[in-house]
Amino acid sequence: MARPLRISYPGAFYHITSRGNEQKDVFKTNRDREKFFEYLESATKRYNAVIHCYCLMSNHYHLLLETPSGNLSKIMAHINGAYTNYFNVKRDRFGHLFQGRYKAILIEADEYAKELSRYIHLNPVRAGMVQLPEEYEWSSYSYFIGKKKAPEWLKMDFILGYFGRKASDSQKNYKKFVGLLTNKKYESPLKDIVSSTLLGTQGFIGDIKDKYLSDKKADKDLPALKELKKSFTLEDMSDLVDKTIKDDLKLGRVVKIYLSQRHTGEKLDDIGEYFGIGGSGVCQASRRIADRLKKDKTLKKVLDKIENNLSRMKV
Question: Does pLDDT of 223 surpass 60?
């Protein structure tokens, strides 16, 4: 059976969903939902989880979750495991409550946290359960707009911080933000997920691959890893860069080296041989580009364009 790819590190943000086995309800009573909240709270205390927003539907739930300690698996084992045990004992049943493994999409928070919070809070509206998100009792939306006092374990400052410095302003502006799409058709932000695992810009995805996947071997039971580790040839890198950077051969060469290290899967010495330098020279050239990207917005746009073209080549 295929396993989901889990990428875990301190400070990671995830969109989490977990569905009932055979699409059956996992929340049958208000007490069930209240008990689930108790396990969310205990996850924040025991495992340092940060819950940014949530929505409990009948047969599944959504969380926007941060892991300051890089311990996603422990957090989710606690939440789903403890709740399953409660649910089974209460109803004298045995076996799985949730359908297989939970789904965890690693997200670039600055790019997608706002959109995902709106997507999560509009779930009951899309399902036809309510007309307005504030009418739904089992999501965090009412807290975000100041309608109710939030529990201590719900941390809204990160998302509301995008909407104003004063609490009253940010709550008002967030309500407008959600209202723009309430009862309207719109594209889900999840449509941009890469390999069922990552949601972010090409630069973010490239950094995650470099830091957390470069030393992992392809695994037939991890199709997402196999997809993410699809590599391009050194010739692919050269051709794409030549089409984009035409007037600065020196810059183009360094960019080719940088992208070759990020995307081809070739050894440093082999990349160096292709460009007539040593493996250490490849590292130095890549570092120079990485440092320059932090300051040079024009170069970043060029790199983003090339990496977007690479992404389309994978499809």
Answer: no
Q: Nearest 5 degrees, angle CA 209-CA 270-CA 237?
A: 60
Q: Tell me the one-letter amino acid at 276.
A: G
Can you tell me the distance from the alpha carbon of 51 to that of 117, in angstroms, rounded to the nearest whole number? 11
DSSP states along 189-204: GGGG-BTTTEES-HHH
Query: In the structure encoding, which two tokens stand for residue 293, read together?
Result: 């990207």
How far, in Å, CA of 95 to CA of 120, rounded? 28
What's at 103, amino acid-wise?
K
**190: which residues sit within 8 A by CB, 6+ positions away?**
15, 105, 116, 119, 199
Binning pLDDT at 50, 70 and 90, where does residue 1 land?
Answer: very low
Q: Which CATH superfamily is domain 12-192 in?
A: Transposase IS200-like (3.30.70.1290)
Nearest-angstrom CA–CA distance, 1 and 112: 30
CATH class as words, domain 232-314? mainly alpha
Q: Which of 275, 269, 212 has the alpha carbon at shortest distance from 241?
A: 275
pLDDT > 70 fraction of the chain, expressed in percent and rounded: 91
CA atoms within 13 A on the CB side of 281: 14
pLDDT of residue 315: 45
Q: Range(s) for CATH 3.30.70.1290 in the chain?
A: 12-192
Q: How far apart are CA 37 and CA 27, in angstroms?
A: 12
- pTM given for the model: 0.74
Q: Which residues contact 118 (CB under 8 A, 6 or more apart)?
A: 177, 178, 181
Mean pLDDT, all residues of the chain: 89
Helix, strand, coil share (%) of the chain residues, nearest 5: 55, 10, 35
